[in-house]
Amino acid sequence: MITWLIFIGIFFIVAIMVFGASTVLYQQVLRYQFGIHERLATLSRELDETDSASLFKEWSQSGSNSMFQGLFRGSSLPTLLNQAGIPWTVKRWWITVSVLALVSAMLGAYWDIRLGIATGLIGMMLPFVFLFAKQNARNQQLSRQLPEVFQLISRAVRSGQTVTSALQMIAEDCPSPIREEFALCYEQQELGMWRELAFRKLAERNQVMELRIFVVALLVQNRSGGDLVELLDNLSKMVTKRLRLRDRIKALTAEGRMQALVLMVLPFVALGAIVLFSPEYAETLLERPRLLVATGVSQGIGALLIRRIVHFEY
In whole angstroms, what is the distance from residue 135 CA to residue 209 CA? Predict the structure, then answer.
């Protein structure tokens, strides 16, 4: 046991040293070079993906299932970090996850190897729980800021200004996180990107249905014409009604969500209390890891079923 802990400690120290050296190298030498190459690559992508008729079809195919499938391949992790408002690289994220998992495993292994494996898995999962919570909170904040943004664009267009000027006003006057998103869209257009492609990328960066409806409506209006002011006013009213419906749904399902939270947390709290106050009694359960695994799987299936009951699309 002591030899194993010493080996993990040495590995942990070496990993920290390598991470520190690579961080210093990146910050001092490679940061700006990579930033320039990334910006040039973004602006020089193919422009043949601007068909607004297929936007909803493509976005529906890139939902939560593909997000989870691409997460461990690294293809969707940058998108998740961007949607959560976390300015980290994929490398820094995986190093943080590895360090947390290693520290959690060492703390659990101090008492038992099997407990160390369990705490290591929990330590690896906690950053992703935090990531998805941040993403959901940021998306909700974006949704609540959209009606005011639509009204601002409508007033700007009504007064004779262009949509690009309205984007600049949003980037300067509106609060975060809507300010950063529209500021990037405005910057891309100023650097030469087509307006249609810039709006498309604005929608692709965020999993906010109201924002995607705005982009599709704007692209269709840009091609077929129409009253943009009336369109924006209708969109503002529609988004406001959707937000009210969302709040009503949350109020009606609050009891079910609280029951789900209690049912999920209670077994872990009870197990921790038993281990703390009666470790001899808990050893009978800890000596049967298969039973613990089956219990964890059952908890996960129950959580998914409860989530399907209290969460639905509208």
Answer: 14
